[in-house]
Amino acid sequence: MSESKKPRVSVIIPTLDAFRGGAVPRLVESIKRQTFRDFELCMVKGVSPQGKAINRGADQTHGEILLILDDDSCVADETVFQRLVDVLDTDASIGMAGASIVIGPDASAFQRRAAEQFPRFDTPVVDRVTDSDFACHGCCAIPRRAFDHIGREREDLLRGLDPDLRVRLRAAGYRVVLAPNARIHHPLPDGWRSLLRIFFRNGYGSAYARKFQPESVYETSETLAESDFRPKTTLAYRVARFPVRLLLALTRGQTMRFAAYCAYACGYTWGMITAKEKAVGGGTSR
After folding, report:
1. How far apart, in Å, are the Cα atoms of 197 and each of 64, 88, 103, 191, 281?
2. Which residues contact residue 66 at a Cβ distance below 8 angstroms, ignoring those fewer than 6 apart?
């Protein structure tokens, strides 16, 4: 590729240290094996929150498609980039094409149990373009025109970047889909300490959003189809639903799910008591 030719795709990886325990080098190796080659790679190091890092990457790159990857993801095979690009090429109304997150072949017994109890830890692989809430920043492709149209990523969100982006894309008339047979691996918590820490952190983050950014609080679906999914619910509904979820987890023998919900509730309570507003940016870039 000549220096004067702009790449078709800009691959953006937000990362704090460009290593993450060896995950980043593994990700880069999986990128090098992709059959689709018309891309540039931009690793945005040490910038947070994630929305600000992604916007920084968009500023530094030139592709007509932004392909965003979490720094602890790993592309499952060499066809993923091509599949994502093909989906965007077939339908101009698609604003986000995501890859399914599937459990890795080296997953532990604990991780496999967790994948069975938490649908978003191991999402279905589809055989056709499918509108779904499962598309996420773990691995997704977004046309730059759609990215700019909706005002890019919010830079003030500490959590909830995925649902916020999906809601704003749909509100602007774009589809959010999973690409057929596109898969990535994303590490699941491996042990009780890791699982409970993640859900406590998520609960704390949810409380922060509820206190200081209530407009950014959205639901995330646990089913593939989105025909009856509503991203916005009331706080009263969420509070009333919580004990029902706990009871269902117990009656179904989902001990991990029950414990994770309890950790989330503890984190949420702690956040509502102690969280203080942080200066993290202002809305969207530009």
Report:
1. 38, 37, 20, 10, 26
2. 9, 10, 12, 54, 57, 58, 141, 142, 143, 144, 147
Q: Are strands 9-15 and 94-102 parallel, antiparallel or unpaired?
A: unpaired
Which pLDDT belongs to residue 284? 55
What residue segments make up the domains of the chain, in order of their start?
9-185, 192-274
**Residues in contact with 104: Cβ distance below 8 Å, sequence separation at least 6, in sequence order:** 74, 185, 187
The number of CA neighbours under 13 Å toward the Cβ of 93 is 6
CATH 3.40.50.20 holds for 9-185: no
Q: Is the dihedral of CA 150, 153, 155, 158 positive or negative?
A: positive
Q: How many angstroms separate the CA atoms of 203 and 167, rounded?
A: 21
Rounded Cα distance, 93 and 188, in Å? 32
The DSSP bridge partners found for residue 43 are: 13
Q: What is the pLDDT of residues 110-169, one digit of tens each?
A: 999 999 999 889 999 999 999 999 999 999 999 999 999 999 999 999 889 999 999 999
Q: Pinpoint the alpha helices (H) of the chain.
A: 23-32, 50-60, 80-90, 109-117, 144-149, 161-171, 192-212, 235-251, 255-274
Segment 72-85 mean pLDDT: 97
